[in-house]
Amino acid sequence: MTPPLPKRTIELRQTNRQAILRFLMLDGPMSRLELSQKTGLSLGTITNVAGPLQEIGMLVETGMEESEGGRPRSILGINPQYGFLVGVDMGEHHVELELFELTLKKLGTVRRPLNVGLISANDYVSAISSGLEELCRVTGISQEKILGMGIGVPGIVEHDGQVSISIPMWNWKSVQFLRDVEDRINLPVYLDNGAKAMALAEFWYGAGRGAQDVVVALIGTGIGAGVITKGSLYRGATNSAGEWGHTKIVMDGKPCRCGSHGCLEAYAGATGILNRMGVENINLTSDQVQIDMIEQLVRDEQQGDEHARYVLRETAHYLGAGVANLVNLFNPERVVVGGWVGMLIGESIMADLKEYVRQYALPPSQSRLEIVSCQFGQDAICTGAACLVIEQYLSANPKFARRLTA
Ligand SMILES: [Zn+2]
Q1: Which of 5, 76, 98, 234 shows the smallest number of beta carbons within 10 Å?
Q2: Which residues place a Cβ less than 5 A from the ion ligand 1?
Q3: Would you state the pLDDT for residue 160?
Q4: CATH code matching the domain that covers 209-375, chosen among 3.40.190.10, 3.40.50.720, 3.40.1190.10, 3.30.420.40
C-alpha cells in the first residue's frame, strides 16, 4: 500500500495547480514551456500537475505550435465545456441570471422583473431558484454540470465567519441570504457586492486585462474601488475593503450619507456633483433624473458653458486627489475609471484627472501608472459574479475546489 502524501506536498500541489489554472484562465491557451516561464515552475512540475487535470477533462490540448529546431509543442487550454458557471445580478427591479462556459463565454440569459417596493429575502430566493431552472432549460445545460453560482448584491456583504447581507432599500439587515439560496438550489454560491463583481469583470475581461495590480474606481451614486493586487481582489478582514468613497478629502466638510463629513463621495459622487451644480433636494430625485442631469452637464460643457466646465474641472480635482491617494497606497500599474458617472464624464475629465494625479501622487508610485476608461457598464455584473466563482476556486476555497476537481 502506498503511504499517504505528506500534508506539505498536497498543499504545494494545490498551489501549483492554482498557479497553472490562473494563467490558463486569464491569458488563454499556451504551451507547457510558456506556462513554465510564466509560473516559474519547472517543466517537469507543469507536466505532473497538468496530467491529472487532463485526465479528468478539465485541461485539453487545443493545438500545436512550432518550436525552434525541435518537435512542435502542444498547446494546453481550459476545456470550456468541463463545467459551467452562473452569474446573478440582483437588481433593484429585476433579477438577471447568465450561464457561462468555464472560459466565460456566455451561453444564455434569463431576466425577470420583480415586484415594486420592498422585496423579502424569501421572494428573492424563489426568483433566483426559478430563474435558474429556466436558464438550464433554455441553454440545455443540466444543473449537475454547473460548478457554482456567483451573486452580485446591491448592498453590503459581510464575510465574518458567516456571510450576511444588508440592503437598506429593502430593509434587509444582516440577512443570512447565502444559506437560504444554497439550501434551495443545491449549488455552491458566492456572494459579493455588485461593485466588486464589476471590478473583477473589468480586470479579467475589460480595461484591466493583462495587468496584475489594478484599481477599478467606480464612480456612481456612491463611490467605491475594487483593488486587485497580484491578480486577486483585496477584501480586508470582513470584506469591507475598497470603501474609497468614504475617505476624507475635506476636514469638517460636507455631510455624507455614511454619517460622516468631508468624504470623497459627498463631492464627486452623482449627488455631490449635482450639489455643486446647485441642484436642490437631490435625494428626492430618481436615478434616471440624476443620469439625465449629468448627461446635460456633459453636453453643456461640450457647447462651451463656463459653469459646466468649472463643475467638471472641480470634479476632476476631487477625483484626482482621491485617485492619487489610491496610487500612493497601492502602487497600481493601471487605474480603470468606471461606474455610471465615470462612464458619462470620463472623457470630459480624463485630461484634468491625469494632471491632478500627476501632481498629487509620489513619482515612484506612478512610474508605471496608466489611467484608462472602463469597457463595461452595469451589464457586467453577471460576468463579474461568474468571475467571483472562478476567483474563489483559484484561491482554493474548498467549497468550490471540491466541486470543480472532484
Ligand atoms: Zn461617507
Answers
A1: 5
A2: 246, 256, 258, 260, 263
A3: 78
A4: 3.30.420.40
Cell 476556486 -> residue: 393
- pLDDT tens-digit profile of 193-212? 888 899 999 998 899 988 98
CA of 186 to the centre of ligand 1 (A): 38
pLDDT value at residue 365 = 94
Residues linked to residue 65 through DSSP beta bridges, in sequence order: 73
- Is residue 230 within 8 A of residue 214, CB to CB? The reply is no
**CA dist 376 to 199, 257, 380, Å?**
10, 27, 6
Residues 140 and 196 sit within 8 Å (Cβ to Cβ)? no
Which residues sit opposite 150 in a β-bridge? 87, 190
Q: Quote the pLDDT of residue 228.
A: 93
Q: Which fold has domain 84-198+381-404?
A: Nucleotidyltransferase; domain 5 (3.30.420)
Q: How far is the CA of 265 from the centre of ligand 1 (A)?
A: 6
Q: Give dist(CA 50, CA 62) in Å, integer.
A: 14
**Cβ partners under 8 Å of residue 243, min gap 6:** 224
Ligand 1 centroid to 273 CA: how many Å?
A: 15
In angstroms, the first-to-last Cα distance of the chain is: 23
User: If you measure from the C-alpha of residue 255 to the centroid of ligand 1, how many angstroms do you get, rounded to a whole number?
Assistant: 8
Q: What separation in Å is there between the alpha carbon of 261 and the centre of ligand 1?
A: 6
Ligand 1 center from residue 267 Cα (angstroms)? 10
Burial class of residue 281 in the structure, from the number of CB atoms within 10 Å of its CB (0-12 exposed, 13-18 middle, 19+ buried): exposed
Helices 7-27 and 381-394: crossing angle in degrees, nearest 10, is 150
Report the chain's mean pLDDT, rounded to a whole number.
90
The pLDDT value recorded for residue 404 is: 64
